[in-house]
Amino acid sequence: MIRLLATNCNRHLTQQLPKFQQVPQTQLNGIRDFSGHLKNANKLLRVVEQQASRAAETGGKRILNTRLILLSGCGVTLGLGTRTYLAFARQAQCESNRLAGVIQKTLQQEDNKFDWRRFWSYLEPHLWELLGAIAAALIVAFINIRIPNLLGDLVNTLARYANTYVKDPLHNSFFSDVRRPASNLLSLYFLQSGFTFVYIYLLSRVGERIAAKLRQDLFKQIILQDISFFDANRTGELVNRLTADVQDFKACFKQFFSQGLRSMAQLVGGGVSLFLISPHMAAIALAAVPVVVAFMSYLGRKLRNLSKDAQAQSERATAVCEEALSNIRTVRSSACEYSEMELFKRETNEAARLAQDLGYGIAIFQGLTNFFLNGLVLTTLFMGGHLMSTESLSPGALMAFLVASQGVQRSLAQGSILLGTMIRGMTAGSRVFEYLQLQPKVELLRGYEIPPKHLNGEIRFENVSFAYPSRPDHVVLKDFNLILRPGQTVALVGASGSGKSTVAALVERFYEPTSGNIKLDGYKLSDIGPYWLRGNVLGFIEQQPILFATTILENIRYGRPAAKNEEIYAAAKLSQSHDFVSALPDGYDTNVGERGTQLSGGQRQRIAIARALLKNPKILILDEATSALDATSEAEVQKALDTAVLNRTTLVIAHRLSTIRNADLIVVMEHGRIVESGKHEELMAKRGLYYDLVRQQERQPVQEPQEIETNTAGGDESNFSTTTDRPNMQQG
Length: 732
Ligand SMILES: Nc1ncnc2c1ncn2[C@@H]1O[C@H](COP(=O)(O)OP(=O)(O)OP(=O)(O)O)[C@@H](O)[C@H]1O
Hints:
A six-stranded mixed β-sheet has the order 6-7-8-3-9-10, with helices on both faces. A four-stranded antiparallel β-sheet has the order 2-1-4-5, with helices on one face. The protein has 732 residues and is α/β, with parallel strands linked by helices. The longest helix has 53 residues, at 337-389. The protein has helices spanning 2-16, 25-34, 39-58, 61-77, 81-110, 116-123, 127-160, 174-223, 227-232, 235-277, 279-286, 289-326, 328-333, 337-389, 395-436, 500-507, 530-537, 552-557, 565-574, 578-583, 601-614, 631-644, 657-660, 680-685, 689-698, and strands spanning 459-467, 475-484, 489-494, 515-520, 523-524, 538-541, 619-623, 649-653, 665-670, 673-678. It is elongated and about 120 Å long. Strand 4 and strand 5 form a beta hairpin. The structure holds adenosine-5'-triphosphate (ATP). Adenosine-5'-triphosphate binds at residues 231, 468, 470-471, 476, 494, 496-502. Adenosine-5'-triphosphate (ATP) binds next to helix 16.
């Protein structure tokens, strides 16, 4: 009976495994709630979860299934009863779905195979050029196979004159004898160089075009990902895939087709001609080939793993470097240059160590290959000499055999070098393809657009709950309800971490609510096209806007790329930027430097406001737009904002009173919930509630200076790591 139930449960679980990804988290939560009273089942589930996570770590679905059979058996023996058991089975089923996803992901990462189908989709458009290159490379290989025979003919001709003293060179038959084999050889040399040019040129064209297309597609795929993807991946690592990995892949591709294909053809053709020249000697030479092939495939597998680790580590080192350089001001102001150097050193040393291991493996392989090949030459000479002494082989045939075997030798030697490149290239390729297949959950262009005449700019939050995908257990907003009426300014205040910016991020559709709805003019935000929404309805001004390293004109135009210059000047005037921009020597053509560092914070902010106003948005979101500024700049920017918000629905996330004084509604948030709301005066009347909250942040009590114990040896306390997997600054 137990067995039957356990098998039944397991069958359910196994059937559900592939469907996992379609089961929404809410459903899982629902089922969890439904059987929340089943404490015993829950206890068991925790065990299941632990076991399954361990199974995921070890990468085995089978282990999971076996454990589930055992555990469901346990569930029954514990006497949970049929109803309980069924609830348990259902819950376990969903849990297993979730865990199967974890396992699948783990397995995918582990078993990141090279996607040949996708590779083919990149090759296909260049098929004719590629076939041309392959044909030319094969012709070169064929010519290379023919050359030893013709050389043999020439040597045989020359050998006839080896011990002959030529009295009258003009009247002996040497030239007429030599002309034919020599001219045959010359025309082959000529053809060989012509076809070499053709295949190298064609391959380079195909390789470069594929690499460019790969980079474009990868960039497109990355830039279209959900914001949560960027929460989970570091910029340096992404850039590394776009640059180093595509580069490695391209280099491997070119080498494989230029040298690899030729070497392979030469190997086969050379082998055949060796047999034709002297089957005896060829049989002896080729006897060792199976050993070499077995050895090659064994080492190839080992080297591929090593290469994967080395590339991942090099990516980590790039990420450290990229992060430090792009945040150079923070690094400098924190006096962290030397620790960054140390960190980079550690990461690059580790990358070097792994790359050295890889080099070590390749070196062993090449050394052994060389030994094998040289042994082959010696054996040929030894055997050939013996056959010549018994007159079963001519000197020309020995020469041809030697040259042909050297061709084979070169091909094998090249093959061993190529193996290293291939390993790197295929690893890089699979890393590129891995990101190419990612699909964002929210498609940028999908969804409808509200006709302009129906667009009023009303936002409603209806029982919205939300947890960030990277921290699903930490609920940031709970049953959040809020209405922003058209043209109204609503200010969100509250302690740090209470969820204010999250509200703004949800309006921007950077994330999707876990439950509940957000509506724009009665339409569900989730049904509206995010691209249209952000490009036409919303203007977003953040605390520290980032400008691009180009002119002020282009930076403002970023808000609406099709805007005319006159519209840009108008937006600049509206944002109080026109005067200071005109006073600059190059005016609107002034280059603002990387991230706009050549402008002051207040100027940057006003340019960002101009950028947002350029699209004439119905809704403005100001996320602490003035909190990073000093009093003078704040006053200037506030003036710009006061003009900007007129006739627009505005959501202000505020830390300072000055920014919310004119708000139509002030909403006080605490732990993801609204605790108080009303007009400025109303809230003042209610014990100055929001003043307290805001003041709490505005006027932090001055702390008594405390002596900070410094630990020169570097204790654990001074270690830090960021949310992503940035390595720890300190050793250990
Ligand atoms: N990208 C993210 N991934 C995971 N958790 C996040 C993310 N962004 C914010 N959080 C968490 O969500 C909670 C609310 O953050 P939010 O930024 O909305 O607060 P806030 O009220 O705007 O704070 P502040 O006033 O300090 O800007 C915090 O606990 C924060 O740690």
